[in-house]
Amino acid sequence: MGVPAAAVPSWFQRHRRTLFICSFLVAPVVLYLVYVISPYIQAFQISLTDWRGVSGTPNFIGLDNYRRLFDDSVFWKAVTHNAALLVLLPVVTIVIALFFAFLLNVGGAKGTSGIAGSGFYRVVFFFPQVLAVAVVAVLFQQVFRPDGSGMLNGPLMALGVKPIGFLSDPGIAFWSVLGVMVWQAVGFYVVLFSAGLASIPNDMFEAAQIDGAGRISLFFRITLPLLWDTVQVAWVYLGVLALDVFAIVWVMTDQHGGPDFSTTVMAAEIYRNAFQYFRFGYASALGVIMFFFTVGFAILSLRLSRRERIEY
Amino acid sequence: MSDTPHLSRRQLLRSAALVPVAGALAACATPAPQTPASTAPGAAKALEVWIFDGGFGHKYATDIHQPLFKTKYPDVAIKHNFTKEITKVLQPRFAGGNPPDVIDNSGANAMDFGALAQDGQLQDLTPLLDMESWDDPAVKVRDTLDPAVIEIGTYDGKFSVVGYVNYIYGIWYSMKAFKDNGWQPPKTWDDFIKLCETIKKSGKMAPFTYAGKHPGYALDPILVTAAKIGGKEILLNLDNLEDGAWKAEALKESATRWAEIGAKYLMEGTAGLDHVQTQTAQNKYQVAMLPSGSWLENEQRTTTPPGFDYAMFPVPDVTGSDKLPHGALHTQPGENFIVPAKAANAKGGMEYLRAMLSKKAAGEFSQLVSTVPTVKGAGEGMQLSTGVKSASDAYAAAGENTVYFRWNAWYLQLKDESAAATGELMSGRLTPDKFLERMQKKADEIKGDSSIKKFKR
């Protein structure tokens, strides 16, 4: 009381700045904790029980669900499908998107502008991105129909070719799913790469051309190295897409991931076990495994993408 | 001025931070401990009804059942709801301990009865059976029902599921197409093959199809044919997960026969079409026969051309020394109504079921949605459509020789495996032996899995 207030700053005044910053962080951090972190923790907790989703008193069963999971051939089949997508989806999508982006921006005759009509194509390529995944899935069910009404099989049958079971032949269905995912993803990455290309100074292309570079060496010597950062970002995005693919498989394929589980993925097995078999405990265990796969992928891709930037 | 709430920046932030916390406590994914609902004081309060809005729609509830219920209980406020997604809407209600009072737990997204029974979520409806029926105080509800309803609705010795509709399975065709072409519904397997040949050669339409995307449709005649050859215990053994049940000789014989149909007589593209597409193809006279059940006629109401005249025949005789005589039939009560054990007004829910099971309600229902009800005599004096008549006649002719199976409702994993494997069998990628081997393996797996509750019949 006797001490003058101005001489020693109060606790509040000393921490004013920190408090001010924290007050802004509280809301997003709480939201994140409640809606992201706590469900994760709950999933770990549920995965140790035999909860079937309807009772209020699940029993703790330790690691039984994880032990069971190792013998679940369907789940491991799903994992291999995710793994295949993890490799194929980014490669195919990035190659096609790079090709298109190159043509749209610097692939023209002069080498510094796009091919004729590139403004139009730019819009068209983006269309699939605008459609909801469920819409795309239903749309492609019709495209892939195995009779005369199918968009692909109709012309084939008119030519006297036997219809192809795009979704009904277990040997083909997975490739159909991959095809649809690529179809839908390419547009976005064309835009992403176009933006990357736009930030490359035009004089680089001009200089290379004066030195006699053709379109191909222009692409591999100038475009690709300068776009490398963007390609890496695309790789991570597409990897995540490949790991958590669900809706396209669940809606489009026969028997939700069939025929004969030939297209099923981890997320579909989680959903099937939770909401069809009512094995929420087991489904949570599958979710936990998927969590580790995803975290593993994230760490790996962060490690691999640490690389010197090219300054220009 | 003084009424204006003053909200400082800090208060605002504090309340903003608290909102999600409160929300999270309410929306917790982990189950909340449940307190049993207080004993229901009769039907005299609100009654919450959920109807599966599938092939039968939900109008029958608001137009027939609820007005009838109201005649006795005018003060009860009925909260009528309908959905195609029973599980999505109602599973959280069960987990939260406040399920509704009556549920039509049907359709592809129905809740797993095994899970509900395992957790004691199903109200024991035995008292309902012993109540006097709605129409006649001298007759108990038990005696108005097809006995199969009680048999099939019993889980763990407690009658808890009311199947309202009698599904009658068979091979469906158009009487018009058969009459115009001089084809006859076959009695024996040889006739069946001959008929398929004739149709194929005629070039007018394909002989046979099934919902290729949902191969369960093709599995049904395979199992019924097996039961016909080897007797009812074939299916009983499957249900009870007996060792080697799927390796029975009769099943092999049947699977071999049907695989031949799959190899030779299917409509082009069958494997990739669903039930709506194949049934529509039949309506367009592109295919002659398909396996389905007595809901088919109503399901196809909008696409069936006039004069199509649906009819069905039971699976044909196979060996000449089949254990079950000609006409043996798969019938099974479906459209399953339950009352949750923890419902706030479980007693009211039972009263609602009692009203539904009256002759008047069941009869009007069956006429509205053209189907065969499980309430005895409810169809009497009603104008029947050709399909319902054909199914009812087949049912009457079958007498004692009706069969059913329940493993596909008890063990959904086995059901999914059977769909996958049947698809492979019918498209020739699995031999009958491999098909049965695969089914046996999955059945053994389920038998050995302690986390899956087992049922017996």
From TrEMBL, chain A:
Q: Name one Pfam family in it.
A: BPD_transp_1
| Keywords, ordered alphabetically | Cell membrane, Membrane, Transmembrane, Transmembrane helix, Transport
InterPro entries noted in UniProt: ABC_transporter_permease, MetI-like, MetI-like_sf
Gene Ontology CC terms: plasma membrane
ABC transmembrane type-1 domain location is: 79-301
Protein location: Cell membrane
Membrane topology category: Multi-pass membrane protein
Span-the-membrane segments of this chain are 19-41, 83-107, 119-144, 172-197, 218-251, 280-302
Which domain of life does the UniProt lineage start with?
Bacteria
Keyword check for Transmembrane helix: yes
Presence of keyword Glycosyltransferase: no
User: Would you kindly state one Gene Ontology biological process term found in this protein's UniProt entry?
Assistant: transmembrane transport
- Assigned protein family: Belongs to the binding-protein-dependent transport system permease family.
Quote the protein name from its UniProt record.
N-acetylglucosamine transport system permease protein
Source organism? Nonomuraea endophytica
TrEMBL record, chain B:
* Entry annotated with the keyword Iron-sulfur: no
Domain of life of the native organism: Bacteria
Keyword Signal (UniProt): yes
Gene Ontology cellular component annotations, sorted alphabetically: cell envelope
| One family name in Pfam for this protein | SBP_bac_1
Stored SUPFAM superfamilies = Periplasmic binding protein-like II
Q: What is its main location?
A: other
Localisation? Cell envelope
* InterPro entries hit by this protein: Bact_solute-bd_prot1, Chitin_NgcE, SBP, TAT_signal
Tell me which positions the record assigns to the signal sequence.
Answer: 1-26
- Keyword vocabulary terms for this entry: Signal, Transport
Family membership, please give it. Answer: Belongs to the bacterial solute-binding protein 1 family.
Q: What is this protein called?
A: N-acetylglucosamine transport system substrate-binding protein
